[in-house]
Amino acid sequence: MAAAADKFARLAALKPTRPLPARPAAIRTPGEEDVLGRLLGAGVASNPFGEHLAVRNWFSTPEFSEPSSTTLELLSRTRDESIARKTRAALEDPEKWLFLDTETTGLAGGTGTYAFLIGLAWWDAGGLQAEQFFMRDFAEEHALLHELSQRVAERPVLVTFNGKSFDWPLLENRFTMTRSIAVPKLEAHLDLLHAARALWKLRLGSVRLVELERHVLDAPRLGWHRENDVSSALIPQFYFDYLRGGPAEPLAAVVRHNQMDLRGLAALFGKINTLLSEQTSDATEIESLDLFGLSRFLQRRGESDRAHSACAQALEIGLPAEFRPQARRDLAQMAKRRGERRDLAGNRGRWARRNSRLRTTGHLLRTSCQGLSPRDRICAIGAGKTQAPAERFKRSPSSRAMCAARAKIPAPPFTLAASNEHGWRRGKTACCITLRRQIVGVELIPRPASSQFLVPQFKGGNRMETSAAKQQAMAGDTVITAEQRYLRTELEQRRERLHEALHSPAADPSLSQLLTAVDTALSRIDHGTFGLCETCHDTIEAERLLADPLVRFCLDHLTSAEQRALESDLSMAARIQRGLLPKPGLAPVGWDVRYHYQPAGMVSGDYVSGKGVAASMLMSHLHATFRSLAEAGLQLDRMVEDANRIFCESTLAGQFATLVVGRAAHDGSVEFVSAGHLPVLHIQSDGATPKDSTGVPLGMFCNTRFPVHRLTLAHGDTLFLYTDGLTEAPNRAGAEYGLHRIRTLAARHPGIEPAGLISKCLEDLQCFAEGLKQPDDLTLLAVQRAE
C-alpha cells in the first residue's frame, strides 16, 4: 500500500496547483540596497509567488480617443464572420482594453527567452495609466506573470504592436513553463502593426513604432520625445550586465523606453481611429501616400466606395510619379466593378494618350542611340550603383523617406534606364526613360552648362537579387505582372496534371483537396487578391509565393506546426551554406587566404547573397556550376559566360547574382572577373586601388561578355573583397560605412597579414556602428601573396 500511495503522490505532484484567489499586490518602498528600485522610483510588489518591482505612472497624453464603430468594424473584419463578430463585440468597451509591450532577453523566442519587463497601460481619467513589472532576477518570474494574469482578467482585450507574432506567444510560453499559472483567456487581441503597415508603409518604408512617432504621430507635440532613447538591440545586453552585477542606470533608460512604447501605442490607435472613421477631417491635410494606403486598405476589406473616394483624392492632391500608374489602375478597376464606364473610359483615354507620347519618345531615343554599342546604352541595371552625379537622378519623396529610414529601396526586375548620350552633347536636355512592366514615366532633366556626362558603370549592390525579394515596394503590388503570368501558367499546368491523375483508378483522395487549392489560387489571381494574407490582408512574402503559389498566410500568421516546419527548413539551409564554405585552414602554395562570414540571420545568402532558403539554393546552384566548369579547363571569361548562360536558363526571370571569380598563379599573376560586384581593393605599399566591376550581374542577360582583370601582385600585396554588409552598415546617425572608409583603413595598414586586416576592419566597423545590430550579412575575403 505504501508503494501505491507513493506513486499516487508523485502523480499528484504533476498536476498544476489550484489557482489562487486574486488579491491586490502590496507595495512597499525598496530598501537602501535595492539601487535599481530607488533609481526607478519603483515599489516592491508582493503576491503569493514572491516579489517584483512595480512602476506606476499616469500620463495626460495621449488623451483618450473614443473608438469609432466604423474603425472597430474594419479592424476586426476577417473571413470568419463568427470570429469577426466576437472580436467586434469585445472591442466595443474601451474600459476592457489593455495596451501591452514587453522587453525581453532576446528576439529568438522559445523556452530560453524571458520577458524581464512587462509594460501595461489602460485608459483612466481621460489619460493613460501605465504600470510596469520588472523582474530583478529569474526567480521573480512567477510573481511577474501572476500579476499580469490578474490585469488581463480585469481587462481581457489586448492591444499590441506586433504582439500577435511575438509578445503574446512568448508570454503564453512562459505561462506554460511555470506549470502553476494558467494562461489568461483573451476576449480579443488587436495588433496595430498590420493596420499601420497598410496605411503608412508606402510613405515611410519602415513602420517601426519609433518611425511612426516621428513622422505620423508628432510625438513632441504630445509631450514626449526619444532623443536619448536606448536602442532596442542593446536592451538584452543591459539586462544581462545588470544580472552579472553591472550598473543599474542603463535599465532606467529601458524602463523609459517601454513607457514611450506604451504611449506611442495608445496614440497610434487614436491616429488610426481618426483615419479609418468616416468623420475624417479635410483630406487635404492628409499625405497623398497615406490616402493611397488607406484606399488599398479599404479595398481589401470590401469598402469599395470609400476606397474609390480615397484613391481619387490621393491622385487629386498629387501622388509621386512612381505611384500614379498603380493608383489609376486601381481607380479604373474599382470604377469597372461599380459600373462607372465613364470613369473607366476617361482613365483608358489618359493611359492611351500617355502611352502614345511614350512610344514617340522611345522611338526618338532608339534612333539617337543607333550608333552606340549595347554596353554604352546601359546606364544602370537592377540595384547597381552609378558614377553619375547624384543631382542627375532625382528621387521621389517616398524614396527619400525610405532612405532616411535606412530601408533598401527595391529595384524591380527588367529595369532599364537609357540615356540619349548624343542629346547630352548637342543640347541642354536629355530624355531619361524607365521601363518597368511597361513604360511608366518620362522626365526631362536639365543639363548643367559645365559638366561632362559620365556613363554610369556597375559598382555593385546586393549580391543576389530576385524580383520576388524586391517587389514589396512600388505602390504595394503583391506580385508583378510577369511573375503572375508565370504563376498562372504553373497553376494551370498543375491543374491539368491533377485532372489527369484523378482519372487514374489508383488516385489518392488528397488530390481533390490539392485541385481545390489550385482553383482557389487561380480565382485569387482573377479577383486581384492573390498574395494577400487571409488573416491580416497584408502582402505575403513574394519569395514564398514563388516557391509555393498555394500559400494563403504571411509569416506572421503561420500555425505552430508551420512555424516549426519553417524553422527546420531554415536550419537545414544554414547547414547547407556552412558546408559549402571553404575550410578555415585553406593555404594554397604562395598565398595567404583568410575570410570572415557573418550571416545576419539563420540563413544568409551573402556568400553570393540575398536572403532566405531560396537564396541559399541559388548559392548552391552557382557553387556546383563553377566547380563543374573549373574542372573543364576553360578560359576565365569563357567559364563565366557559360555559368551566366546556365544560370539564366535555369532560374526565374529577374533573378541575378553579383560575384567575383578569379585564378591566382604561383608567380603572383592574378586574373578575375567582377560581375556587377563592389570594387575589389588592390592593397599595395603605396595605397589601395579599387578595381571596378568588369560586367553586369550573372543572370541579367543570357548572352553577355565578361572582360577579365589581369594584374601581378608583389610580395605582401593583398586583394580585399567584401559585400555590402560592410559598405552599407549604418551607425546611429543613419550614415553608412562607405567605400571611402574601407580604402582609408586599407591604406593605413599596407603589408598587414590577411587575418590582421580582417580583424582591423571588424574593429573599425564595430566602432563605427556604436553597438548597433547590423541588418545585412557580412562577408570579407583577403588574399595576399606570401613570401
Description:
This protein has 787 residues and is an alpha+beta fold. 45% of the residues lie in helices and 16% in strands. The chain contains 28 helices and 22 strands. The strands form 5 sheets. It has an 8-stranded mixed sheet with strand order 1-2-3-6-5-4-7-8, sandwiched between helices. Strand 18 and strand 19 (687-691) form a beta hairpin. Residues 15-24, 341-345, 351-480 and 604-611 have low confidence and may be disordered.
Question: Briefly, what is this?
Answer:
The radius of gyration is 30 Å and the shape is globular. The relative contact order is 0.06. The protein contains 28 helices and 22 strands.
Describe how the helices and strands are arranged.
Elements: H1 2-14, E1 26-28, H2 35-40, E2 43-47, E3 50-59, H3 69-76, H4 81-91, E4 97-104, E5 115-124, E6 127-134, H5 141-154, E7 157-160, H6 163-178, E8 188-191, H7 192-204, H8 209-217, H9 219-222, H10 235-243, H11 249-276, H12 288-300, H13 304-317, H14 324-338, H15 341-368, H16 374-377, E9 380-381, H17 397-404, E10 416-419, H18 421-426, E11 429-436, E12 438-446, E13 464-465, H19 467-470, H20 481-502, H21 510-527, H22 542-547, H23 560-580, E14 591-598, H24 612-630, H25 636-650, E15 656-657, E16 659-664, E17 669-675, E18 680-684, E19 687-691, E20 709-712, E21 718-722, H26 724-727, H27 739-748, H28 754-769, E22 778-785
